[in-house]
Amino acid sequence: MEFKCLWTSAVSQHQELSISRERIEKWLAENRIEYVWLGKELGGYRKGGYKRHVRSKLFKGGIEQLLEIVKNERACIVCMEANPKYCHRKFISAYLEGKGVRVTHIIAKGEESPAQVLNSG
Question: Could you give the CA distance from residue 6 to residue 42 in angstroms, rounded to a whole number?
């Protein structure tokens, strides 16, 4: 596989949408996309807030895993929240950009936005 999907939802199932990690993993494999779950390290909904989590060893360990993956492969970070402006992914992308990684958010099919636009304000 030449593309990885990095799932960063802290939960393995979203009840409102009836989407389970297993269903997503199966669909991705059928489409030749490798699935990597980083919800423990990078998932949202943190006690004390996500800004605090960004300073933790767990978060930094997840970022290191992500950086190892993107050295040799293309990857996307996904979560249940569609708009990264209202999601913990904005913190992940800001951190990555601080390390010189170019981040592009896919807002909708065919619609992209540079991370700097969504992370400002």
Answer: 10
- Strand-strand pairing, 34-37 and 3-7: parallel
By C-alpha distance, which of 13, 19, 16 is closest to 39?
Answer: 13
Please give the span between the terminal C-alpha atoms of the chain, in angstroms, as a whole number: 37
The neighbour count for residue 12, using CB atoms within 10 Å, is: 14
The β-bridge partners of 104 are 114
The DSSP annotation for 7-22 comes to E--SSSEETTTTEEHH
Contact (CB, 8 A) for 75 and 38 = no
- Quote the DSSP letter at residue 84: G
Model pLDDT, residue 3: 62
- Tens of pLDDT, residue by residue over 65-89, are 999 988 888 888 887 777 888 888 8
DSSP-derived letter for residue 43 is -
Which DSSP state fits 48?
T
Alpha-carbon distance of 42 to 44, in angstroms, equals 7
